[in-house]
Amino acid sequence: MKVAIIGLGVVGYGAYEIIRDELAPEIEVKYVMDLRPFEEIPCIHAKDINQIVSDPEVDVVVESIGGLHPAYEFITASLKAGKSVVTANKHLISKYYKELYQLSHETGACLQYTPSAGGGIPWLHNLTRTRRCGAIESFSGIINGTTNYILDNMTLTGAAFEPTLKRAQELGYAEADPSADIDGLDVQRKCAISVNRAYDAVIAPEDIPTAGIRFITDEDIAAFRSKGLVCRLICRGSRKDGKVSAYVEPTLFAADTLEANVPDNNNLITLVGKYVGRLSFYGQGAGRYPTAHSMVEDIVDIHMGWVRDPQLTGAAEVDNSAQIHRYYVRCENLSFLGDLVEAKLGSGVVTVPVSVGEMHRIASTRLAQGEKLFFAGFDE
Amino acid sequence: MKVAIIGLGVVGYGAYEIIRDELAPEIEVKYVMDLRPFEEIPCIHAKDINQIVSDPEVDVVVESIGGLHPAYEFITASLKAGKSVVTANKHLISKYYKELYQLSHETGACLQYTPSAGGGIPWLHNLTRTRRCGAIESFSGIINGTTNYILDNMTLTGAAFEPTLKRAQELGYAEADPSADIDGLDVQRKCAISVNRAYDAVIAPEDIPTAGIRFITDEDIAAFRSKGLVCRLICRGSRKDGKVSAYVEPTLFAADTLEANVPDNNNLITLVGKYVGRLSFYGQGAGRYPTAHSMVEDIVDIHMGWVRDPQLTGAAEVDNSAQIHRYYVRCENLSFLGDLVEAKLGSGVVTVPVSVGEMHRIASTRLAQGEKLFFAGFDE
After folding, report:
1. Fewest CB atoms within 10 Å of the CB: A50, A205, A282, B23?
2. Which residues from chain B sit within 8 angstroms of residue A292, using beta carbons?
């Protein structure tokens, strides 16, 4: 099988190495395409996408340039030419999910993107495999390593948010502009991809109510610790009576749960299957070789036929009205919560059970007014 | 695809239900075979195995009667007739691994046994998938729910071993004769199967040094707790420089590790891959529907071609001489340990680093003399 790799960045180059060292000659890189020369790579260095998609020998195009454009143009050109596509690009997959699937259906090409949600963890593969024999009742988990590093370190050391974020940036876990991680947008995209895969739905990331950890303080963490609780940024999805629920929010777990004990920048993602019950998958959600490994697994899945076409049932509306639990809420003035307050905790309060939809609406209003509100749901 | 289910016990009947409710008519149960009538099942009730294996329409035979005989005869007759086989029978698979594989190779039939090691957890599936793209450097984990229930409950409540075992029996987690669980034989078999699958080796269960938890006391547990340690029964396997290591022993984990926080009768099994690093898989290692689900997943894998033939490289010798760590050891008279003692801990001692091979030899000698010795390795 012949492969073309577009983009030889951290992950793309890693995928090249794994194919070269583990899978050649059964799977071979025939083309690479990158602005840099990479003269050590003994294959055809493509100048444009047409050179790749017009070669009938190419079976799979690996997109690893990231971003929306020209990644979108490269992927659609490949699918239109009947080439299967493998990508880790969560932004692109979550944004163009329906369109890309329709394209792949039309031409019979495969579209695989396991590393886009879970990095090195075979989460989407196992989600797909499990649902063949019974519905996925719900899923949830830690699917962003940067925020887990920050929350885990704040919990262990008592440090404040800003220096911990800075340390994460020094370690290369967080970007110079950390918004996508700390505001939950990265998790939101992965959540959308997981919902779509679990339920053959087509929901857009922006339809998922999402809260991040930008305003969490060491005082919040100390209050949680005083109650034996540990904070993690969590995505959740479920389907019941035809309604899809999905949301992203900081969540408080008892200290002896698996989630509370996920160290550093690792991920732990869980599904609850109709028959199999809870299955959790733990590992590196990012990083050169874990992500590249997952990408190459997708290529081998295409090679061996370990793929399954989704049946898109069309757009689904996100409805979180039936998801109800207590919240910790903290901001300067909490009077707007009125009757919802059940107890004080640290500088914040614990609410009575509130629907996820309502809590996110309340918080959005306050955040839009510039208040540094932080809230976290109880895992209950 | 047509399936025959031999044995409609807890798991076999569960598999029948899942196929009926989730997969028919694409996958259909054409035969069942059981000593009991099960008149509600609308298919052919086979009187003997020949009726099944002589029917060219049957693609897959599910063996769920357990035990070595006549399960062995049924499986070999099926494979010889070119029927694929799915089983959860760890005793049989670990004992006849090489022979059954050779048979399946000769006739082109598939032999799938994911539920035999991990129950509902897709451990063997993911082990197989991961190693396609890079070696499995090691694996380890909690792969027996009964002993995890006992150890977890002793740790949480401070209760003694005997009443906790009794409670496990009342809950249906432990057999009336609990030896296979508490002496580690169940783990030993699953460890052999995992080694064989990870390394294309052929090792027999009895070649794996194995220690159980029969003689653990609440005093041992209290001593571990005083050091922030939690005891779990663990299997380990690895390959380095062509040497295969494999052993089963109680192991002491820091309280904030995933292993220490696996509750009740759950399992957590981990691999370390060359590129992907650590991946862990958590779930129910036993139980009707989890195990039946895993069995049906194997059937669907055969149906969809999601299978991979192992390359048996022949027998491997188990060599644990390079595996070295400290041990907790406790028995009436510890003088035989001589210079190996580093410190006291509770009623026992902590040794200097000792090879796994040596520690298991020492312990076996003492146990054979009727001493109630308990030992546990440090996770280091």
Report:
1. A50
2. 275
Q: Contact A8/A31 with Cβ under 8 angstroms?
A: no
Given the residues B2, B190, B274, B344, select the one marked as catalytic: B190
The Cα A241–Cα A226 span in angstroms is: 39
- Are the C-beta atoms of B323 and B245 separated by less than 8 Å? yes
The verdict on a CB contact (< 8 Å) between B280 and A276 is: no
Burial of A243 (0-12, 13-18, 19+ CB in 10 A): middle
What number is the ipTM of this complex?
Answer: 0.98
Cα separation, A281 vs A129, in Å, equals 13
Q: Could you report the per-residue pLDDT of B170-191, keeping only the tens digit for each?
A: 999 999 999 999 999 999 999 9
Enumerate the H helices of B90-212 as residue ranges: 90-95, 97-107, 123-131, 145-157, 161-170, 179-182, 185-199
Distance from CA of A359 to the nearest CA of B (A): 31
CB B315 within 8 A of CB A297: no
For testing contact with chain A, the best of B22, B124, B133 (most A CBs within 10 A): B133
pTM above 0.80, yes or no: yes
Looking at the complex, report in whole angstroms how far the Cα of residue B305 sits from the nearest Cα belonging to chain A: 7
* Whole-angstrom distance, CA of residue B55 vs CA of residue B43: 14
Nearest CB to A306; choose among B282, B293, B306: B306
Minimal Cα distance from A282: which residue of B? Answer: B280
| CB interface of A with B, residues 244-263, below 8 Å | 256-258, 260-263
Which residues have CB under 8 Å from B338's CB, separation 6+?
none
Q: How far is B97 from chain A (nearest CA, A)?
A: 24
Q: Euclidean distance between the first and final Cα of chain A, in Å?
A: 49
The answer to whether the CB atoms of A129 and B125 lie below 8 A apart is yes
- For residue B133, which of B267, B245, B271, B240 has the smallest C-alpha distance? B271
How many residues are there in chain A? 380
| pLDDT values of chain B reduced to their tens digit, one per residue, 380 residues | 999 999 999 999 999 999 999 999 999 999 999 999 999 999 999 999 999 999 999 999 999 999 999 999 999 999 999 999 999 999 999 999 999 999 999 999 999 999 999 999 999 999 999 999 999 999 999 999 999 999 999 999 999 999 999 999 999 999 999 999 999 999 999 999 999 999 999 999 999 999 999 999 999 999 999 999 999 999 999 998 889 999 999 999 999 999 999 999 999 999 999 999 999 999 999 999 999 999 999 999 999 999 998 778 777 899 999 999 999 999 999 999 999 999 999 999 999 999 999 999 999 999 999 999 999 999 98
Cβ-defined contact of A292 to B273 (cutoff 8 Å): no
Q: Return the closest-CA partner of residue A311 out of A166, A215, A200, A184.
A: A200
Quick check: A293 and B261 CB within 8 A?
Answer: no
Q: Are B354 and B361 in contact (CB under 8 A)?
A: no
B272 touches chain A (CB under 8 A): no
* A122 reaches B (C-beta below 8 A): yes
Tell whether B380 lies on the interface with A, counting CB pairs under 8 A: no
Q: What is the mean pLDDT of residues A371-380?
A: 96
